[in-house]
Amino acid sequence: MSKVANTYWNRSHKSLSNSNDRSGIKKRVKCATPQWFIFTVIVSVTLLLCLTINFRAFSELREQFAENTDLNSEIEKLTTENIVLQEEIKNLNDDPKTIAREARKIGMSRPNEKILVPIY
User: Which residues, given as ranges, of the chain have pLDDT below 70?
Assistant: First the structure.
Protein backbone atom coordinates (compact mmCIF):
# COMPACT_ATOMS: atom_id res chain seq x y z
CA MET A 1 0.00 0.00 0.00
CA SER A 2 1.04 3.52 -0.49
CA LYS A 3 2.03 5.96 2.18
CA VAL A 4 -1.08 8.04 1.57
CA ALA A 5 -3.34 5.01 1.91
CA ASN A 6 -1.64 4.01 5.14
CA THR A 7 -2.09 7.50 6.57
CA TYR A 8 -5.75 7.55 5.60
CA TRP A 9 -6.30 4.03 6.91
CA ASN A 10 -4.71 4.76 10.27
CA ARG A 11 -6.69 7.98 10.74
CA SER A 12 -10.05 6.40 9.96
CA HIS A 13 -9.29 3.48 12.20
CA LYS A 14 -8.33 5.79 15.05
CA SER A 15 -11.43 7.90 14.59
CA LEU A 16 -13.62 4.83 15.06
CA SER A 17 -11.85 3.87 18.23
CA ASN A 18 -11.82 7.47 19.48
CA SER A 19 -15.57 7.69 19.26
CA ASN A 20 -15.84 5.25 22.18
CA ASP A 21 -12.85 6.43 24.20
CA ARG A 22 -11.53 10.00 24.21
CA SER A 23 -8.10 9.20 25.59
CA GLY A 24 -7.17 7.07 22.59
CA ILE A 25 -6.58 3.98 24.73
CA LYS A 26 -8.96 1.13 24.19
CA LYS A 27 -10.55 -0.01 27.42
CA ARG A 28 -12.61 -3.09 27.76
CA VAL A 29 -15.76 -2.49 29.77
CA LYS A 30 -16.14 -5.20 32.36
CA CYS A 31 -19.27 -5.92 34.37
CA ALA A 32 -19.05 -5.33 38.09
CA THR A 33 -20.56 -8.78 38.80
CA PRO A 34 -19.68 -11.94 36.92
CA GLN A 35 -22.33 -13.71 34.88
CA TRP A 36 -22.07 -16.92 36.91
CA PHE A 37 -22.97 -14.97 40.05
CA ILE A 38 -26.10 -13.51 38.46
CA PHE A 39 -27.10 -16.96 37.21
CA THR A 40 -26.54 -18.45 40.68
CA VAL A 41 -28.66 -15.74 42.31
CA ILE A 42 -31.51 -16.31 39.84
CA VAL A 43 -31.40 -20.08 40.35
CA SER A 44 -31.26 -19.66 44.15
CA VAL A 45 -34.24 -17.29 44.21
CA THR A 46 -36.22 -19.63 41.98
CA LEU A 47 -35.37 -22.60 44.18
CA LEU A 48 -36.35 -20.73 47.35
CA LEU A 49 -39.63 -19.66 45.78
CA CYS A 50 -40.44 -23.25 44.83
CA LEU A 51 -39.54 -24.48 48.32
CA THR A 52 -41.72 -21.82 49.93
CA ILE A 53 -44.70 -22.73 47.79
CA ASN A 54 -44.24 -26.45 48.47
CA PHE A 55 -43.81 -25.90 52.22
CA ARG A 56 -47.00 -23.86 52.37
CA ALA A 57 -48.92 -26.53 50.43
CA PHE A 58 -47.53 -29.22 52.74
CA SER A 59 -48.56 -27.24 55.82
CA GLU A 60 -52.11 -26.80 54.49
CA LEU A 61 -52.27 -30.52 53.64
CA ARG A 62 -51.18 -31.42 57.18
CA GLU A 63 -53.82 -29.09 58.67
CA GLN A 64 -56.53 -30.56 56.44
CA PHE A 65 -55.47 -34.09 57.40
CA ALA A 66 -55.68 -33.24 61.12
CA GLU A 67 -59.10 -31.64 60.63
CA ASN A 68 -60.27 -34.69 58.67
CA THR A 69 -59.13 -37.00 61.49
CA ASP A 70 -60.94 -34.88 64.10
CA LEU A 71 -64.14 -34.82 62.06
CA ASN A 72 -64.03 -38.60 61.53
CA SER A 73 -63.67 -39.21 65.27
CA GLU A 74 -66.57 -36.80 65.94
CA ILE A 75 -68.70 -38.63 63.35
CA GLU A 76 -67.93 -41.94 65.08
CA LYS A 77 -68.86 -40.50 68.48
CA LEU A 78 -72.13 -39.01 67.20
CA THR A 79 -73.03 -42.23 65.38
CA THR A 80 -72.54 -44.23 68.59
CA GLU A 81 -74.58 -41.69 70.56
CA ASN A 82 -77.30 -41.82 67.92
CA ILE A 83 -77.50 -45.62 68.14
CA VAL A 84 -77.82 -45.45 71.96
CA LEU A 85 -80.60 -42.84 71.70
CA GLN A 86 -82.46 -44.91 69.09
CA GLU A 87 -82.34 -47.95 71.41
CA GLU A 88 -83.62 -45.82 74.29
CA ILE A 89 -86.50 -44.51 72.13
CA LYS A 90 -87.37 -48.05 71.11
CA ASN A 91 -87.36 -49.21 74.76
CA LEU A 92 -89.52 -46.26 75.86
CA ASN A 93 -92.06 -47.10 73.18
CA ASP A 94 -92.18 -50.88 73.67
CA ASP A 95 -90.77 -52.03 77.04
CA PRO A 96 -93.20 -51.66 79.99
CA LYS A 97 -90.41 -51.88 82.61
CA THR A 98 -88.58 -48.96 81.05
CA ILE A 99 -91.77 -46.95 80.89
CA ALA A 100 -92.49 -47.62 84.59
CA ARG A 101 -88.93 -46.73 85.62
CA GLU A 102 -89.03 -43.43 83.74
CA ALA A 103 -92.47 -42.62 85.17
CA ARG A 104 -91.19 -43.11 88.73
CA LYS A 105 -88.26 -40.76 87.99
CA ILE A 106 -90.69 -37.91 87.36
CA GLY A 107 -92.88 -38.73 90.38
CA MET A 108 -95.68 -40.76 88.76
CA SER A 109 -97.04 -43.98 90.26
CA ARG A 110 -99.73 -46.57 89.70
CA PRO A 111 -103.07 -46.05 91.40
CA ASN A 112 -102.56 -48.77 94.05
CA GLU A 113 -98.86 -48.09 94.65
CA LYS A 114 -97.42 -46.23 97.67
CA ILE A 115 -94.57 -43.80 97.15
CA LEU A 116 -91.97 -43.43 99.87
CA VAL A 117 -90.68 -39.89 100.23
CA PRO A 118 -87.50 -39.44 102.26
CA ILE A 119 -87.65 -36.94 105.16
CA TYR A 120 -84.60 -34.88 105.93
Answer: 1-31
